[in-house]
Each structure stands twice: as structure tokens, then as C-alpha cells.
UniProtKB/TrEMBL annotation, chain A:
InterPro entries: AAA+_ATPase, ABC_transporter-like_ATP-bd, ABC_transporter-like_CS, ABC_transporter_ATP-bind, P-loop_NTPase. GO terms for molecular function: ATP binding; ATP hydrolysis activity. PANTHER family: ABC TRANSPORTER ATP-BINDING PROTEIN, TAURINE IMPORT ATP-BINDING PROTEIN-RELATED. The lineage of its organism: Bacteria, Bacillati, Bacillota, Bacilli, Bacillales. Keywords: ATP-binding, Nucleotide-binding, Transport. Signal peptide: none annotated. The keyword Aminoacyl-tRNA synthetase does not apply. This is Putative hydroxymethylpyrimidine transport system ATP-binding protein.
TrEMBL record, chain B:
The keyword Aminoacyl-tRNA synthetase does not apply. GO terms for cellular component: plasma membrane. The chain crosses the membrane at residues 60-81, 93-116, 122-141, 218-239. Residues 56-236 form the ABC transmembrane type-1 domain. This is Putative hydroxymethylpyrimidine transport system permease protein. It is a multi-pass membrane protein. It comes from Paenibacillus catalpae. It holds the Pfam family BPD_transp_1.
Length: 274, 249
């Protein structure tokens, strides 16, 4: 599945959301008539303050919650996992906590998505083993989660999503619990892996630097309820690395973004993390 | 070697206690029907080895059968409690409340229901051991990490897959906690069952010996019963290590 690169075809929507409305019982709506499109093979981040309902959005996209109205379509729903049943999307959801199963080894944790999709255990293990080295996990296949560091655990969690998720990955603040040094190295790591596989990724973060460094497009949620997401094209050249954050263009985009978020006055200076 | 080093303090301590027992009974000249000398207890063990072996086997068999039924009923109840919110609200509190009923007072009823044969002994063992298995397993199911369950659902896992790949492995450590507790107290259940009415078994043996004021035989039986309890506990722990392996918790 990792070998299909979409180059010749015209750009299709990796994820297409239309008119999404959702509210928890007895509360103000979180989303109202929200449209959202993620082009296939793009890395798109959503930046918003806490409590805006980002995680709820992901749960809706992952099919764990049913929207009050609106449609959610993924490119993979028509292709890869249709046999799972009526309207069941299987996407690669990477939660904030790594959620690795303590009773499974790295190998079996990463293989769970394939296992659930009916791939034979042997084939699933073969595919995991093939990917371990390039994700910096060589030699860890027989280890248990508690024997790994936080960063390594997130890599396993990412690999699990990668193998489970057709062409669409939802990453919910995956690096927020890591210390600053580890976070930087994990961002570089994700850049490398993504630039190789070019999956469609929707990424949630609080960290503006992180969003700009990784993404093709940043979506800003500034209002509540969220009725639209303000796009910001990130036209920084790839391949990128941490040096990119020192770029003049990067600083310019960062200022733009902070303005959109209302964190700085139209001509002022401001900090990096919400 | 490492294991020996770890167990050495407890072995020495037991040896010390045994020494105190033997010397104390001699020095203070305690009558054998109050506390027999340890050497007499060993002598009684040796003298009646064949008979004790027969009684031992029966009591062990009762404890094992009772444990097996408790595991089956306990796990099934835990599954029921976990899968139905109505059962959680009705059955679970009832099981917990049932622990306030003095089991010893209830035990004679088992004899009325299941007679003087092995059935009533197994029933008493179940009365003792059902609770730790059922409640610990139910707690294990309940405390399974919800986010892992959601993640599996997002990957398309159905009910059966969630149960097999999420609930069961999550609950295993708690189940084994319950099993170890049950194993340790199962011998007590079997002994009580025998006291209430029976022909043989170590419970019957110790009761008869006590009636005849044969302190050494009573202690010989009690010693064997404790060893049986320890052995069952260690066996449960061994299975636990085998199943859980290197995984955490």
C-alpha cells in the first residue's frame, strides 16, 4: 500500500467534508456547516486554541461519532476498506497518547490494523518488518511498549496508523507529550517519512512552528462554533528540515498565521505556541 | 543461585520458627494435645503417610474442581456484567453484597442441597472462590483502556474483535490476581466442606484427630493443608507468568 504514488492523476480529494454540523447534547454546536477539503497527498494542519473541538472533529472523521448533518468522504473509503461494511471508513487515526497495547510487541502493535482488515498474520508481520528500518525502529520488533522511550513509542503508533489507514492519516497532536528536544527530532523524522510516502495527512497541533514546518497548508479555526477554516498556503520548498524555521519566509508566514489567530496586532510581533 | 539468594531469608526464618517450636514445647513442657512437638508432627506424617496421601488427594481434587467451576462461572459472570449495563447495575452490586453473607453459616445448606458426597464440598469451594474471580475479572474488563478500544474501532474492529483483541488481553492481569486469591483460599473451602459432613479428606482427618485429642495428627493434617494452599497459589502464579510473559502489569 505504501508503494502507490499518485502522480499522473489529476488531484483528487483525499478527504472531503461538506456541511458538517455537530453538537454534544445540550451544548452549543462545535461545528456548523463546516466544509473541509484535503487534497490527496497533501500535508494539512489544523491550528486552533484548546477546547475548539479538534479532537471531536477527528473522532467524527474517524467514524467514532456520527455527525448531526453533513457528509464525510475519503478517497480510501471507495477503494481499500469498503468490505468492512456499510459506510465504515478505515482511516489511520493516531491519537494524542500512543495507545500502544502493553500486551503486544512492537511488531504486533504495528500490525493490528492489517490484522483487523483480514490480512494474514504472516503477511502483516512481513509488511511491518519491511517498514521498521526506515522509521528508525530496526531491531525493536520483539520489544514491548514499556521497554521503549516516548519518541519511539510514537513512531510505533505512527507506523500502526500508516499501515491501517489507506491513504488518509489523522494525527492528533502526536508530539505534544514529548519533551522539546525529542519533539524536534520527531518533527524531522516525520518530514522524512512523509516526504517519502506522501500520504494524505490531516494534522492537529497547538504548535505554530510545527504546523508551518510540516504542512503544505495550515487551516486556522478562529471562531466558535467553527463554521469555516481559514487556509494559509505554506509555500516553503521541500525537502525541509529544522533549518527551515530560521528562514525569512518562514518568519513571514508565522506572522501571518499569528495575525489570523488574533494573537498579535496586524503589525506586531508575537510568540510561537498558543 | 540468584533465586536461592532471594529465598534464603524466608527459609532461614522458617527454620528459626521450627526451632523455637521444638525447643519451646520441650522447655515449657507443653502437653501434646495443646501443641505437639514438631518432631512428633513429622513422626505422625511419616507414620500415616499412605493414609494422609489418600486424604490429601481427595481434598486437592475437591479444591481443583471447585476452582475450575469458579473460573468458568466467574469469568462468564464478568463477561455478562461487562456486556450489559443492566447486569452491571443489578448483578454486580449483588455479587459484592453477597460477600457480607457469612459463607460459613451458609455452608450447611450446601450439604442439604448437594448431599454428603463430593458435590457439597465443591459447592463450598465455589462459595469461597467465585467472588475473587468474578469481581477481579469484571474490574479488569471495566478498566480496559477506552482509547485503545476506540482506536481499534476506528480501524474497523467489530464487537467480537474488540472482545478478543482488547477486552480479554486487558483483563488478564486482573483475572490472574483473582485466580491467585481464589487458589489460596480454595483449600479452606474444601476443608470446611469436609467438616460439615464427609467420609474422607484432610478436613475429616484433622477433625477426627482433634476429637481424639491427637495433636500431632491434627498438626500433620494442617501442615499438609497449608502446603496444598501454597502449591495451588504457586501453580496459579506460574500459569500467570506463562501467559503474561514479559508484558507490563
Amino acid at each position: 500500500m505504501s508503494r502507490q504514488h499518485v502522480t499522473a492523476e489529476p488531484p483528487r480529494a483525499g478527504l472531503s467534508v461538506q456541511g458538517l454540523t455537530y453538537r454534544f447534547d445540550g451544548e452549543e454546536p462545535l461545528f456548523e456547516g463546516l466544509d473541509l477539503e484535503v487534497p490527496q497527498g497533501q500535508f494539512v494542519s489544523i491550528v486552533a486554541a484548546s477546547g475548539m473541538g479538534k479532537t471531536t472533529l477527528f473522532r467524527l472523521l474517524a467514524g467514532l461519532l456520527q455527525p448531526d448533518s453533513g457528509t464525510i468522504k475519503t478517497a480510501s473509503a471507495g477503494l481499500v476498506h469498503q468490505e468492512q461494511g456499510a459506510g465504515r471508513r478505515t482511516i489511520g487515526y493516531m491519537p494524542q497518547r500512543d495507545c500502544l497495547m502493553p500486551w503486544r510487541t512492537v511488531l504486533d502493535n504495528a500490525a493490528i490494523g492489517l490484522e483487523l482488515a483480514g490480512v494474514s498474520k504472516r503477511e502483516a508481520r512481513r509488511r511491518v518488518l519491511e517498514l521498521l528500518p526506515e522509521l528508525g525502529l530496526a531491531g525493536t520488533e520483539a520489544k514491548y511498549p514499556h521497554e521503549l522511550s516516548g519518541g519511539m513509542r510514537q513512531r510505533v503508533s505512527f507506523l500502526r496508523s500508516l499501515l491501517a489507514g489507506g491513504d488518509l492519516l489523522l494525527l492528533d497532536e502526536p508530539f505534544s507529550a514529548l519533551d522539546a528536544m525529542t519533539r524536534v527530532s520527531m518533527q524531522q523524522w516525520l518530514l522524512q517519512v512523509w516526504e517519502k510516502h506522501r500520504k494524505t495527512i490531516l494534522f492537529i497541533t497547538h504548535d505554530i512552528d510545527e504546523a508551518l514546518l510540516l504542512s503544505d497548508q495550515v487551516l486556522v479555526a478562529a471562531s466558535r462554533p467553527i463554521t469555516r477554516l481559514e487556509p494559509l498556503e505554506v509555500d516553503l520548498p521541500r525537502p525541509r528540515d529544522y533549518e527551515t524555521t530560521l528562514d525569512e519566509r518562514f518568519v513571514y508566514l508565522k506572522r501571518q498565521l499569528l495575525r489570523q489567530l488574533g494573537r498579535i496586532a496586524p503589525s506586531g510581533e508575537g510568540g510561537g505556541v498558543l | 543461585m540468584k533465586m536461592l539468594k532471594e529465598k534464603l531469608p524466608i527459609l532461614l526464618f522458617i527454620l528459626l520458627l521450627a526451632l523455637c517450636w521444638e525447643l519451646g514445647t520441650r522447655v515449657f513442657d507443653i502437653p501434646p494435645y495443646i501443641i505437639p512437638r514438631l518432631s512428633d508432627v513429622f513422626a505422625a506424617l511419616e507414620q500415616h503417610a499412605a493414609l494422609l496421601g489418600k486424604h490429601f488427594a481427595l481434598t486437592l481434587w475437591e479444591a481443583l474442581l471447585g476452582l475450575a467451576f469458579s473460573v468458568i462461572f466467574g469469568v462468564l459472570s464478568a463477561i455478562w456484567i461487562d456486556s450489559s449495563s443492566l447486569a452491571r447495575k443489578t448483578i454486580y452490586p449483588l455479587i459484592v453484597a453477597s460477600q457480607t453473607v457469612p459463607i460459613i453459616a451458609l455452608s450447611p445448606i450446601m450439604v442439604m442441597w448437594f448431599g454428603y458426597e463430593i458435590g457439597s464440598k465443591i459447592a463450598v469451594v465455589i462459595l469461597f472462590t467465585f467472588f475473587p474471580v468474578a469481581v477481579n475479572t469484571a474490574d479488569g474488563f471495566r478498566t480496559a483502556d477506552r482509547e485503545i478500544g476506540e482506536l481499534l474501532r476506528s480501524m474497523g474492529a467489530g464487537k467480537a474483535q474488540l472482545f478478543l483483541k482488547w477486552k480479554i488481553p486487558s483483563a488478564l492481569p486482573s483475572f490472574f490476581t483473582g485466580l491467585k486469591m481464589a487458589a489460596a483460599i480454595s483449600v479452606g473451602g474444601a476443608t470446611l466442606g469436609e467438616w460439615l459432613g464427609g467420609e474422607s479428606g484432610l478436613g475429616v482427618y484433622t477433625k477426627r484427630a482433634a476429637n481424639m485429642l491427637r495433636g500431632d495428627d491434627v498438626f500433620a493434617g494442617v501442615l499438609l493443608l497449608s502446603l496444598m494452599g501454597i502449591a495451588l497459589f504457586v501453580a496459579a502464579q506460574f500459569i500467570e507468568r506463562l501467559v503474561l510473559g514479559r508484558r507490563q502489569n
